[in-house]
Amino acid sequence: MGFIGMWLIPAVISLYYSFTDFNLLNTPKIIGFTNYTRAFTQDDTFVQALKVTFSYVLVLVPLRLAFALFVAMLLNKKHKFLGLYRTLYYVPSIIGGSIAVSVVWKQIFGNKGVVMTLLSVFGIEQGMSFLGNPKTALSVIILMGVWQFGSSMLIFLSALKQIPHAIYESAMVDGAKPHYIFIRITLPMLTPTIFFNLILQIINGFRVFTESYVITDGGPLDSTLSYVLYLYRRAFTFFDMGYSCALAWILVTIIAVFTVILFRTQKNWVYYESEEE
Question: β-pairing, 29-30 with 20-21?
């Protein structure tokens, strides 16, 4: 019942509104695919939001997964206070998407923030802050996303512990170098986990909202206007609910396409130990 009441019914209603002219005040009027054709043929801001979101996902996901794997491999060894390190690395994933942290991040990279102050101390003068420059603002948002690598790191760490140590011992006895062991043993054994993390992070990347909304509000010059932020504006600033519902279903379709592509191609690069040769 929870699935029907909290997801299925709202999804069906949203799909219906996507084919209507509806602004919360008037009675929904069915207009067919007009909202969808409007997005692709008449709305330049929609195209910009797509570009920003795709850029965010294509840069963020590889960096976050690579950094998460790197830290997981460091924590996979015996260290003093290992439990504390794991907790500290995981905390950003818990609080990273909060409004409070986004406000702090905005202050750090703002005109009078820590970053600008440190640069001035070293004699590096900037005409504007990183958040005020259209060329660097999105990079700050991406950096915050990479910082939230804790959940992926824990999943990688769990997978690393499942790799039999005997395989590594055999490789070392045969004289295999560390980089060869990583490429030929560790990565193939981790491909199911990489596949799982990849899907999760792509979905989360396309849903980015809080960082873009709080830190830059989509600016400057729409350089950080994420897709969900634009959808939010159409719905709750312009009250264009029919059009925003169409935008939501376009996003669902994009995520579904990426997911299907990954599932269709996994047999070419994902190794499952239980599979028969």
Answer: antiparallel
Q: Which residues contact 186 (CB under 8 A, 6 or more apart)?
A: 73, 160, 163
**CA torsion sign, 164 to 170 to 172 to 176?**
negative
Structure tokens at 272: 């499952």
What whole-number distance in Å separates Cα of residue 273 and Cα of residue 164? 12
**What are the φ and ψ backbone dihedral angles of 218, each rounded to 5 degrees?**
85, -10
DSSP letter at 223? T
**The total number of residues written for the chain in this structure:** 277
Cβ within 8 Å of residue 225, ≥6 positions away = 45, 48, 49, 52, 212, 218, 219
pLDDT band (50, 70, 90) for residue 275: low
Own/partner long-range contacts of 33-38 (Cβ < 8 Å, ≥24 apart):
35/242, 35/243, 35/245, 35/246, 36/246, 36/250, 38/243, 38/246
Report whether 98 contacts 180 (CB < 8 A). no
Place of tokens 């919360």: 24
The pTM (predicted TM-score) of the whole model is 0.91
Contact 75, 249 (CB under 8 A): no
Q: What is the average pLDDT across 94-100?
A: 73
